[in-house]
Amino acid sequence: MDKLAAANRINEFLQSVVTNGGLHLKYRIVVDPPAQSDWEKPEIFVDFSGPDSTLLLDRGAELLRALELLAFEILRLPSGDHEKISFDCKNQRSIRLQELRMAASVAAEKVRQTGTPFHFAPMSSRERRILHLALRDQTDLRTESDGEGFNRSVVLYPADYKPAATRPARRTLP
To answer: Virtual CA dihedral for 151, 36, 101, 136, nearest 10 degrees?
Structure first.
């Protein structure tokens, strides 16, 4: 990926969205920003600010994530390269990272106490990855992703958990 060309295409896209959408937003595009965390090292970082920031952050930052997803599509990025681009507004990303780390910690304690799996709510591949990484050093636990598409989520299991044997489906005679 040519980072400068990609940054220019993102800029053209965002200029169009902000202008045609009548949004009161500013944004800054940084190529090769300093690492934001141990787990996220984007090659292109877009940071939004301005009076309409709340629109981007409403409903769990739905619009911010949608703009990011459209940028992936415009650049034709394969899903494995999505971590190369990161959109943020009012430090929402690091706040969400802290929330996910806390949720991972609480879920780990719950699984240890009950011995039963914990199912997280469906989330994006990026957030699922953060949960997997947050829990990777817990040798007495293991994580798996479950579900399809927008319903894909992380399940946390005790390391030695084996599901109860499922009964074969009953056959009915005609």
So the answer is: 80
Ranges under pLDDT 50 in the chain:
none
pTM to 2 decimals? 0.73
| Beta strands at 44-49 and 85-89: parallel, antiparallel or unpaired | parallel
Helix (H, G, I), strand (E, B) or coil at 142: strand
Rg (alpha carbons) of the chain, rounded to whole number: 20
| Cross-strand pairs, 29 | 46
Looking at residue 5, its pLDDT comes to 94
Number of neighbours of residue 125 by Cβ within 10 angstroms: 13
Residue type, 91: N
Q: What letters, b where the CB count within 10 A reaches 16 and e where it falls short, cover 63-74?
A: bbbebbeebeee
Domains located in the chain, CATH noted: 3-90 (3.30.300), 96-158 (3.30.1370.50)
